[in-house]
Records
---
Amino acid sequence: DGGITQSPKYLFRKEGQNVTLSCEQNLNHDAMYWYRQDPGQGLRLIYYSQIVNDFQKGDIAEGYSVSREKKESFPLTVTSAQKNPTAFYLCASRDFQGGGNEQFFGPGTRLTVL
Amino acid sequence: DAKTTQPPSMDCAEGRAANLPCNHSTISGNEYVYWYRQIHSQGPQYIIHGLKNNETNEMASLIITEDRKSSTLILPHATLRDTAVYYCIVRPQGGSEKLVFGKGMKLTVNP
């Protein structure tokens, strides 16, 4: 089945540790996105990438880093510099070249920093 | 900031039509209206989008007023699985890279 996978679904880390969240898609989409969602809130854009080896900061990029070495993969690292990392993280992709505007979302990773 | 206004919540009886309103009075001529929904603890799911004509797909219908300042998402026969937070978003086709999600509207379908 085509889609976006995020792993793990739940992740626990100690304060001060970096942690990398996985996002993989087999939809052949060019664009990929990372959002953060806090309880009762909408989604906020962290980073996005329209093409391999290129990415742009979103609204809340501080304390996060990404890479886009392969079209299928867009991992997000939550660094120790992120002051409040506990949140629900969502990855999405879009068929940018095809002109479609719908973003397809993965199931999310819930990160808890203890 | 989100350019849309939705009521915070709505209830609907199972099997009845659910009409979800959205105000977007500052919408620009090149902006589309998109609807997504998010079931608890899952990623958002695309539902439908439109510019000015009414649209229908297998999930829902979208009715946009003639002045485009508001729209209504219609779930014709709501089921318990339609309970979710529904987001109304406006954005240009192929424009800005981000989807601006507000707080959305919680639809609860009751048995």
Note: Chain A has no helices and eleven strands.
---
Amino acid sequence: AQKITQTQPGMFVQEKEAVTLDCTYDTSDPSYGLFWYKQPSSGEMIFLIYQGSYDQQNATEGRYSLNFQKARKSANLVISASQLGDSAMYFCAMRERYNFNKFYFGSGTKLNVKP
Amino acid sequence: NAGVTQTPKFQVLKTGQSMTLQCAQDMNHNSMYWYRQDPGMGLRLIYYSASEGTTDKGEVPNGYNVSRLNKREFSLRLESAAPSQTSVYFCASSPADRAHTEAFFGQGTRLTVV
């Protein structure tokens, strides 16, 4: 079974609007971390935001927030007020406590921000 | 602040040639990783090393070997390159003692096997 599933290969959003990128995960470990990375066309992997499985509140970092629904095993990334520079690939990833040497990545979502 | 440094950034190989991708990190991390990235497939783990002197296979280890030379360096070797190994390769590192710390990535190596 896939550990991380991103079901949106590509998305479009209008500049200044909000967009949600979906991520679901599969684990039986009660302790885990969820991560989102951005990969612009230049290729580097940029860490955006982290959510711990025991965190009571959704993580936020500037215009990025994570909509964490533990019972549904989803960790969607919300980008508010989209900017042209947000056009990139976005990857969701997970790290489990009992298997903490591995990061599991989804297949990514390509976001295009339209002017 | 170097972080994770990969060399080379680009490489073209002929089928059957060998090469080693180099990776070094200066953050004193125990865990290091090699991933490959192919269109539509995300990042797939080739090998990882939890600490100096240990290495383990990931999802797609066939055709690759690794060496954890010391705590800083983790190299990936292609003994006999094949066109199927055309990909972008990323090295990453992370502290090994927690599950809640992100991985830090190198800039990637774009490898083409012809």
Note: Chain A touches chain B at residues 4, 6, 9, 31-33, 35, 37, 43-45, 47, 50, 52, 91, 93, 95-97, 100-103, 105-108 (CB under 8 Å).
---
Amino acid sequence: DTAVSQTPKYLVTQMGNDKSIKCEQNLGHDTMYWYKQDSKKFLKIMFSYNNKELIINETVPNRFSPKSPDKAHLNLHINSLELGDSAVYFCASSPLRLMNTEAFFGQGTRLTVV
Amino acid sequence: GDSVTQMEGPVTLSEEACLTINCTYTATGYPSLFWYVQYPGEGLQLLLKATKADDKGSNKGFEATYRKETTSFHLEKGSVQVSDSAVYFCALSRVISGGYNKLIFGAGTRLAVHP
């Protein structure tokens, strides 16, 4: 069983469209994250949720809206897609405290906006 | 703010060569330090970690020692293999408000190992 799974793996869409990426973890973790990886491989955190509650929101445009229906799911909805949104988006999860443990990452969703 | 700086890649080596990827950090307090690896087309996986000064993390022949005096966590391997070709990320775990943590990553270093 995949620990952190994201769908879809690839997403090609036109500017101005609205799209969603889904993430599910079966590890029983309390905390989930969305990271964005740009074309130079730089990883930046976007959001973090703990038990459906927003913990981190890192200066992300309002067009990005995370939704956590339960602690095992964290979906990312993007409105009015722009060319600059093209990137690989990674979902991750961890136990509540990261200091002595690791985050588990999904395989990523490659979003291409044309 | 807290940050992680890694040496720029790509690093290109022949099989069985020695590897060092430099990583230094800036942080308040004493963060935990991690190396993550990303193989082509995959997500990130934890390679090793160290949670306090002088700790040495090790896994799959890779090692890194948490050096508080030099704020460094360099990744080393004595003999690399073609299968080690990947992007390597140094990261620190920083406590934010409410006692939660977040990972701050370096820019990543691509390693290419040739037979």
Note: Chain B touches chain A through 29 residues (CB under 8 Å).
---
Amino acid sequence: DTGVSQDPRHKITKRGQNVTFRCDPISEHNRLYWYRQTLGQGPEFLTYFQNEAQLEKSRLLSDRFSAERPKGSFSTLEIQRTEQGDSAMYLCASSLAGTDYGYTFGSGTRLTVV
Amino acid sequence: DAKTTQPTSMDCAEGRAANLPCNHSTISGNEYVYWYRQIHSQGPQYIIHGLKNNETNEMASLIITEDRKSSTLILPHATLRDTAVYYCIVRVVTHDYKLSFGAGTTVTVRA
């Protein structure tokens, strides 16, 4: 197992375009999380899944954001009609529910909206 | 709302021990203390966690005070690769599914 993989690592897009990021968690982990991190700040929670069910969405996740985790495996995060304020690092993490193990994070996707 | 307070930054000499403090004075009995670090341009990396006993692994040691209101992460022999932002987080394992990151401590290890 190579850990949590995120693709792409970097994305530059024009304002108003749609973008989609992918996260492949550790295979035996049933929980998957998305976080956003802006420069100089700690990561902020966006949403999480247990298996294929999306159980919570932060108020940070506006209507332009949607996340899916079909079949409880990989997940996608889509941002529609991107705005300059969406520029950030988008981090994915996974964990095994019911344990006290630490979460495993991916390396993130850095989005720049121009 | 972050439940922990950490110094904004600290320097450490290479090869020496780095002691990173964290205050969590409002911690409740079922909250664990977790430490993560984030090296520039990477995702956070789990380091260690504990409930009330001191813990040690291959990366670090965690010392939790008897009243559990504060803790110290110890990097025994800091290297340049330990330069990172270190986050102290408290979490109830059974139902806290999200980690609340504060600003962390920026640790710079100097040669």
Note: Chain A touches chain B at residues 4, 31, 33, 40-45, 48, 50, 55-56, 91, 93, 97-108, 110 (CB under 8 Å).
